[in-house]
Amino acid sequence: MSYTYADLAQRVREVAPLTHCLTNSVVPEITANVLLAVGASPAMVNHPEESRIFAGIADALLINVGNITDPDVAAMRAAIEGAQKAGTPWVLDPVAVGGLPVRTEFARSLVSGAYPPAAIRGNASEILGLAGHSGRGRGVDSGDSADDALEAARELASRTGAIVAISGPTDIIVSEHTTTHVRGGHELMPQVIGTGCSLGAVVASYLGVHSDDLALRHAAVVAAHAHCAGAGTRAGADPQVKGPGTFAPVWLDCLVHGPESVEACTIAEGAHD
Amino acid sequence: MSYTYADLAQRVREVAPLTHCLTNSVVPEITANVLLAVGASPAMVNHPEESRIFAGIADALLINVGNITDPDVAAMRAAIEGAQKAGTPWVLDPVAVGGLPVRTEFARSLVSGAYPPAAIRGNASEILGLAGHSGRGRGVDSGDSADDALEAARELASRTGAIVAISGPTDIIVSEHTTTHVRGGHELMPQVIGTGCSLGAVVASYLGVHSDDLALRHAAVVAAHAHCAGAGTRAGADPQVKGPGTFAPVWLDCLVHGPESVEACTIAEGAHD
Amino acid sequence: MSYTYADLAQRVREVAPLTHCLTNSVVPEITANVLLAVGASPAMVNHPEESRIFAGIADALLINVGNITDPDVAAMRAAIEGAQKAGTPWVLDPVAVGGLPVRTEFARSLVSGAYPPAAIRGNASEILGLAGHSGRGRGVDSGDSADDALEAARELASRTGAIVAISGPTDIIVSEHTTTHVRGGHELMPQVIGTGCSLGAVVASYLGVHSDDLALRHAAVVAAHAHCAGAGTRAGADPQVKGPGTFAPVWLDCLVHGPESVEACTIAEGAHD
Fold it and tell me: How far apart (Å, rounded) are the C-alpha atoms in residues C132 and C136?
């Protein structure tokens, strides 16, 4: 390709994509701080009337179904309608889908809807659950390995045109003809709430800047994962970090350095076998 | 007893109890981070339909009435019904009860309901307010001393079978025949929002693992308090800590070390006089 | 004047004003931590029935319309009615007003209502939007400079009696006959979500203590701005700070030292030209 992943990270900071986040009640603050750190501009707009308008103004939209309530569903549906009208790309984070009925039905309806997501990001159990397989997740933790979910991810990618990212110790990013592995991160990352949810928002920001064709979108999703994971790798090596509490602020500091973070990961690319 | 408090802390990390938190809008992020730090698995599920199901899957449930709204009340009632059906133990945190009418009526109805909490954790004014006495609280701060609330706590414990914990510079844990004092913590802890609310969630996690009999449940509530307070004692002694902002991440780091935290407290036990 | 700005900061800590915050879903935790750090007592009470009562008990009220939903509007209207009855001063933070219709109509209705705010704090685009001019804001960022909004601020101040603060690299505080410039802060402050929103809460706390006459209220709003900005200046000079993640906790630590923070700013006063 004619650009490096580090170039994509650099471009996000230059453009500062306005990223509309409809996310769960636990993580809005860290999500906003992560977006600011990567150079994006976060906004959360939950009133259905405003959400519809704002999704048309924004460069990208995140729909995270963790802890949804009925008013959230209304705000999300309105936002997706606004996004469709304006062509705004959006990302689905299917938190705990497969395990709980309201969000499972809702997330599946979005995926088969008139304007499916440009990308889907979840752990293995969530990707299995979204695809209609029964995963082993319990709560928000995955009971399945990323490899278990690979076929489901390929099926989702093929059916919807979305890029599907399976988060885990190694992240796997799948689109119709390509599978990429991103190795990086740090064992403290899952001990900080919102590192996964804010990754979904970062994916949206990257797609808000890089959306020309499927190959570029795939690369953008890979770069977003490498950006967050590589910042984790670098933060984990900082001598100030003694545990999850001191890890979180150093990780945010590292996110500011997108190209360096991307380059801290091992990225293995390849077409499908 | 045949186990130490440090053993109980260790066991929480081994089991990683899935802890369903219905808490107020200010503290979900720190609550989740505290639960992760002590080795539990947090989840917040607020849709009434999902909340009912999830309380049956989870190992423990927290109901924190700080800043409740009508939809929260519905989610909480549904969760308690689900918990009752499955026998899931739950903890009530009666934030500002006694001072504000909606939460006071709601919290009192839960305590006299069909499935009362396994534990109640609040400051002195809140325990007095929950028991029907008029405390001197204003907002979320206690205007009363822990000793003032001791009789009210004993009455609540006797009436409901719950273990009642009064938070303060010295925490007092009361069950029908036992009163235990936990001395520890640090003066910066009340300067960090959510240290008290997340203690309620930690109590729930401990009860999700240790629930065989009243003596074990009492010990679990004591250990949860010692875990959080002792981590505060240890964090406050760290030379990196210069104020409440730098205290919070170091406290989270210290929470990872449960047995060491528990042992940093002075625990004075005894049957009622 | 017979008091210094540092005196006003000191007095806030002595009184610990109970500050009722109805704020957006992204920033309640940092808002509460900031209020605790400056010596105030935060509380968030969103149930309309309780909100009305609590606004009468509290020393000050913050209304932040970022991310409002219909239930928030109900809670805010009830709180302002309670504040009016008790004479509690309140602050309006018109987040993204001018750009989104529901909050714009709501915020304008409050400003022309029966009990207008004692102070208004926003960025230049928001002040322009609130005054009915079309600003260049997109999302929550200002597309206008503070000087652009000066006339709109004077018009609002004159029409409502409120003190109007325009946030920016230099903050401008305007009341009917006085304009004050506060220079301080740090370039990392806008990279931490909630530094602006929590400033609105600090302004409310200061007004909860200092409300005798317009000159004192003006000085209180100036001191609140200098307190937050000066803590930013001091935090930014700390060698531990390497980016927005490590800035945030050090900033909270610095906020504990109100008089020193105030004195780290340059404050230029003057009557209107």
Answer: 13
CA distance C106 to C104: 5
Alpha-carbon torsion (C176, C180, C182, C183), positive or negative? positive
Domain of A249, CATH number, reads 3.40.1190.20
SS3 B47: coil
DSSP C115-167: S--SEEEEEHHHHHHHHT-----BTTB-SS-GGGGHHHHHHHHHHH--EEEEE
Residue found by looking up tokens 């219909």 in the block: C70
Q: How many Å lie between the alpha carbon of C45 and the closest alpha carbon of chain B?
A: 5
* Subunits close to C (at least 3 CB pairs below 8 A): A, B
Short-list C120, C122, C115, CA closest to C86: C115
Place of tokens 């407290």: B265
Domain that holds residue C85: 5-271
Shortest distance between the Cα of C193 and any Cα of chain A, in A, equals 6
Which chain C residues are closer than 8 Å to B69 by Cβ? 46-47, 71
Paired sense of beta strands A18-22 and A60-64, if any:
parallel
| Pairing assessment for the beta strands C18-22 and C41-43 based on DSSP bridges | parallel
Residues of chain A positioned with their CB less than 8 A from the CB of B46: 25, 67, 69
* Residue C210 CA: distances (Å) to CA of A204, C120, C261: 45, 16, 18
C-alpha dist (Å) from residue A48 to A54, C93, C198 = 10, 21, 25
Task: State the complex-level ipTM.
Answer: 0.95
Contact B224, B205 (CB under 8 A): yes
Q: Please tell me the pTM assigned to this model.
A: 0.96
pLDDT, one tens digit per residue, over B68-79 is 999 999 999 999
Q: Which residues pair with A271 in a beta bridge?
A: A178
- Overall domain count for chain C: 1
CA of C144: how far to CAs of A72, C92, C137, C147, C168, in Å?
32, 20, 7, 8, 10
| Token code pair at residue B187 | 């003066």
The DSSP bridge partners found for residue C170 are C183
A143 falls in which pLDDT band (50, 70, 90)? confident
